[in-house]
Amino acid sequence: MPGPDPDVAAARLAVRGALADLPAGVRVLVACSGGADSLALAAATAFVAPRQGWSAGAVVVDHRLRPGSDVAAARTARLCRHLGLEPVDVRAVDVAGGPAGTGAGGPEAAARAARYAALRGACEHHGAAAVLLGHTLDDQAETVLLGLARGSGARSLAGMPARRGPWRRPFLALRRSQTEQVCHAAGLDFERDPTNAADGPWRAADGSPLRRAAVRERALPALVDALGPGVVEALGRTSAQLTRDADLLDAQAAALLEQALVTGEPPEDQDDDAVVLDVAVLEAAHPALRTRALHAAALRAGATPGALAAVHIDTVDALVTAYHGQGPLTLPGPVSAARRCGTLAFGRP
Predict the structure, then answer these.
(1) CB 290 within 8 A of CB 282
(2) Which of 7, 99, 122, 285 could form a disulfide with 290 if both were Cys (CB 3.0 to 4.6 A apart)?
(3) Are 349 and 303 in contact (CB under 8 A)?
(4) Residue 35 known to bind ligand
(5) Residues 324, 185: one domain?
(6) 203 and 280 share one domain
(7) Annotated binding residue 36
(8) Is residue 33 part of an annotated ligand binding site?
(9) Is 103 annotated as ligand-binding?
């Protein structure tokens, strides 16, 4: 008797490996949009979960950004139930700014924030041990290129982690073509959202094409044309290598931060939760560790993670390495950073 399609087998193996640490009896949820990646993930999880003793359900997020989105969400929910997933939770969200989006990231970032908030809420409501996301190796390659274009550091260039908090991404080693084949083999008719395209109606905050869609449809194909096949896999290897490097540097930076912490009463003009660091300890550290420690200190003091950029940290670093009487700095959050009497204090202004 012939076995399953090779891509179907690869998808099932990926799910089994991603959840191997979970005991029998726990519940997992698949985030399913109706696209090929998430439907393939739903099918693989529906097959694997009962055989491993897990309970598997799904979450369908309706962003309400295009006409008929509720109909599409209901159709996706029916497919998930047909696969055997239960419960299937359909959650409608409000995306800040609607199709125009708000903030620097435009509609992509606004929709992402609303989607992850809904997924987290579903995870807590259903007591799930994990939420599975359908990102593929192609998505990872796009993330690496986007990070390069922004001039990001190693952690951003490392791309999406296979596991962080409740999120798990079993398909980071699978190509998008494989997830489509899984759907074809299972007889699943997946959706192609016309609004999520470089030439679609949605635009980035500056009016240009959606960043990820432009990378997917234009930049990656151009790189393959110029450099030959294997570009996506090579970017995936870069991501994996940088993940290892960033993990080590982050661990060493965390140790540096703990070493530099000054205990006791914060300065009079800072709140009780201020993070105060010894400048001498920071100044003696390698820049790669020091800037990471400064970033972590700012976040600990309440800075906004998505808005705190390298340019902010470089300015704070100058308070340590090139101090000539600069006044307090204001960071996103808002959080201030000020040097005085051999210390660097982060806190609410």
Answers:
(1) yes
(2) 285
(3) no
(4) yes
(5) no
(6) no
(7) yes
(8) yes
(9) no
